[in-house]
């Protein structure tokens, strides 16, 4: 939502996005918890590593998370990014356990063990299960944006076809977790988590409209997004109980 | 009791090295408001706790009107224990925090579905209670027996110094120190040791009496501390001096922000603190990455 507002201000006429953040995922993961009052209080100190040749900490606070745990020892990344990176790794690994263990602390503990970090770190995630669900939602949004950018299927579609395709793509990303999706929805509906999940859905809906080429700048802007939000949510809920041929496995009643 | 999460940005603080070094040195040589030699402090603190050990829990209840139980509950819920964890509770003599952790771990196991993996993990849970004072440990062991945990493999009572722990590097999932860090001689050494024994992803949690800044409440709290508590100590435990030391040592301990920056200096990340009861007690936490 923020990006498209900024784009609207700075662009003149064209529909292309110029102000793409290099990796929306880290932006989102850094700003994701902005509804809570908890922020990093103390700037992290560089340690005295035995073999440090350069203690350069990079100036940007948004970094791509380190890949698969191989951080070169002579390189000092921004320590805040380290924690965020580790958090992202743990959550990514936890997603693989969700089908078995649900959107729960147990899945996150299993994920932490998988990446070799003590499961205590799970205790530091704000609103634990919500952290996992929100990470997944951000992840799906990022994948949707990537699909939009690679753009082949959206070339020659009318806006409504475009919206149809994008909503379908997005919902299909949830399909592997459909058996546990009701739990995720209930976590998102929890009063503590409602504001963040609402923001995420608003961003999602805005992305879809923007990809469909929407350029309204009056009250219709809100109307369109609200309507699409409603459509998306009802489709999502219907998906939970859809038992027609070729659809996803039903959620278990366990 | 109002629980408020208070965060401040330390970037704007100016704390020249000299100032911090002298503050730390002053902690090492302060015994309450008295000045003592560094080597003596540890002994004097040891005497205090040997004296108070038998009435420790009772006095805690009196002084905090039972609130200390809630504070420890809060500490342990912040920790989020899990079955199979290796936890170290330092200065945990009488076992309050350790018992709570064990209870949570057991209740997770009871709640879990028939999951054979978890049952094995439950066996692996180890909570080490470390204290420098043998009297406090003995009280703790007796309490464990009273609760039926006398034979529990998960509770291990170890005598040791927080500044020089006998545990291996990267061996603990969690480290807590409740109302203990105020009494050590060298705070930075304790923090460094904590960093050393924690695994990657391990959490450091410290529950400690701290500084109150709220205007009127601060005055009331001071009156309560300096007039009521030593008197209470005299009447209930027959030991005014020890409780005088207690309230003085609270005032000499670094304030929340300063202590948080010390924790960050030791290498912990995501350092934050939470004030309980307006700052009477603070829970500081950090993660080793």
UniProtKB/TrEMBL annotation, chain A:
Per the record, the domain of life is Eukaryota
Kindly list the GO CC terms recorded for this protein: mitochondrial inner membrane
Record-given protein name: Ubiquinone biosynthesis protein
The UniProt regions of compositional bias labelled Polar residues, in chain numbering, are 30-43
- PANTHER family from the UniProt entry: UBIQUINONE BIOSYNTHESIS PROTEIN COQ9, MITOCHONDRIAL
Gene Ontology annotations of biological process type: ubiquinone biosynthetic process
Q: Which GO terms describe its molecular function?
A: lipid binding
Q: What is its main location?
A: mitochondrion
Cite the COQ9 C-terminal domain residue spans from the record.
194-246
Which UniProt keywords are given for this protein, alphabetically ordered?
Lipid-binding, Mitochondrion, Transit peptide, Ubiquinone biosynthesis
Q: Where in the cell is it found?
A: Mitochondrion
Taxonomic placement: Eukaryota, Viridiplantae, Streptophyta, Embryophyta, Tracheophyta
Extract the NCBIfam families matched here.
diverge_rpsU (TIGR02396)
Q: List the source organism.
A: Hibiscus syriacus (Rose of Sharon)
What the entry lists under Pfam families is as follows:
COQ9
Q: Does the keyword Plastid apply?
A: no
Query: Segment Disordered: which positions?
Result: 30-86
Q: In which pathway does it act?
A: Cofactor biosynthesis; ubiquinone biosynthesis
TrEMBL record, chain B:
Q: How is this protein annotated for GO cellular component?
A: extrinsic component of mitochondrial inner membrane
Q: Which GO terms describe its molecular function?
A: 2-methoxy-6-polyprenyl-1,4-benzoquinol methyltransferase activity
Broad class of where this protein is predominantly found: mitochondrion
Q: What NCBIfam families does UniProt report for this protein, alphabetically?
A: MenG_MenH_UbiE (TIGR01934), PRK00216.1-3 (NF001242)
Instruction: Quote the subunit structure annotation.
Output: Component of a multi-subunit COQ enzyme complex, composed of at least COQ3, COQ4, COQ5, COQ6, COQ7 and COQ9. Interacts with PYURF; the interaction is direct, stabilizes COQ5 protein and associates PYURF with COQ enzyme complex.
Stated role: Methyltransferase required for the conversion of 2-polyprenyl-6-methoxy-1,4-benzoquinol (DDMQH2) to 2-polyprenyl-3-methyl-6-methoxy-1,4-benzoquinol (DMQH2).
Entry protein name: 2-methoxy-6-polyprenyl-1,4-benzoquinol methylase, mitochondrial
What taxonomic lineage is listed for the species of origin?
Eukaryota, Viridiplantae, Streptophyta, Embryophyta, Tracheophyta
């Amino acid at each position: 939502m923020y990006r498209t507002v900024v784009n609207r201000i700075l662009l003149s006429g064209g529909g292309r996005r110029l102000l793409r953040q290099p990796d929306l995922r880290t932006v989102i993961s850094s700003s994701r918890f902005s509804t809570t009052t908890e922020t990093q209080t103390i700037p992290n100190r560089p340690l005295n590593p035995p073999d440090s040749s350069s203690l350069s900490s990079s100036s940007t606070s948004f970094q791509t998370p380190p890949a698969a745990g191989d951080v070169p020892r002579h390189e000092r990344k921004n320590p805040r990014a380290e924690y965020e990176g580790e958090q992202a790794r743990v959550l990514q690994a936890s997603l693989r356990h969700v089908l078995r263990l649900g959107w729960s602390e147990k899945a996150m503990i299993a994920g932490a063990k998988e990446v070799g970090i003590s499961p205590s770190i799970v205790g530091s995630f704000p609103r634990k299960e919500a952290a996992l669900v929100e990470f997944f939602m951000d992840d799906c949004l990022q994948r949707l944006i990537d699909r939009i950018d690679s753009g082949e299927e959206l070339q020659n579609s009318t806006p409504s076809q475009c919206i149809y395709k994008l909503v379908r793509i997005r919902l299909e990303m949830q399909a592997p977790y459909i058996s546990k999706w009701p739990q995720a929805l209930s976590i998102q509906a929890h009063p503590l988590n409602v504001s963040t999940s609402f923001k995420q859905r608003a961003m999602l809906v805005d992305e879809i409209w923007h990809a469909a080429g929407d350029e309204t700048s009056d009250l219709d802007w809100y109307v369109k997004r609200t309507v699409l939000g409603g459509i998306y949510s009802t489709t999502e809920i219907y998906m939970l109980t859809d038992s027609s041929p070729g659809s996803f496995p039903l959620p278990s009643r366990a | 009791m109002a629980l408020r999460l208070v965060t401040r940005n330390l970037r704007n603080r100016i704390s020249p090295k000299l100032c911090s070094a002298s503050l730390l040195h002053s902690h090492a040589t302060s015994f309450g408001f008295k000045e003592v030699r560094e080597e003596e402090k540890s002994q004097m603190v040891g005497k205090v706790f040997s004296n108070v050990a038998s009435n420790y829990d009772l006095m805690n209840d009196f002084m905090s009107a039972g609130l200390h139980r809630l504070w420890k509950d809060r500490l342990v819920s912040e920790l989020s224990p899990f079955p199979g964890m290796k936890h170290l509770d330092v200065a945990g003599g009488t076992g309050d925090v350790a018992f709570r952790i064990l209870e949570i771990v057991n209740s997770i196991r009871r709640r879990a579905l028939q999951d054979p993996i978890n049952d094995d993990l439950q066996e692996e849970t180890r909570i080490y209670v470390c204290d420098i004072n043998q009297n406090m440990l003995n009280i703790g062991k007796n309490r464990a027996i009273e609760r039926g945990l006398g034979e529990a493999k998960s509770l291990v009572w170890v005598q040791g110094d927080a500044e020089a722990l006998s545990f291996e590097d990267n061996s603990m999932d969690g480290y807590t120190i409740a109302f203990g860090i105020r009494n050590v001689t060298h705070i930075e050494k304790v923090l460094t040791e904590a960093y050393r024994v924690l695994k990657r992803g391990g959490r450091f949690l410290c529950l400690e009496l701290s500084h109150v800044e709220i205007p009127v409440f601060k005055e009331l709290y001071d009156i309560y501390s300096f007039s009521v508590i030593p008197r209470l100590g005299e009447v209930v435990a027959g030991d005014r001096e020890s409780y005088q030391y207690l309230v003085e040592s609270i005032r000499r301990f670094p304030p929340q922000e300063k202590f948080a920056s010390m924790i960050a200096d030791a290498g912990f990340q995501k350092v934050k603190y939470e004030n309980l009861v307006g700052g009477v007690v603070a829970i500081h936490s950090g993660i080793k990455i």
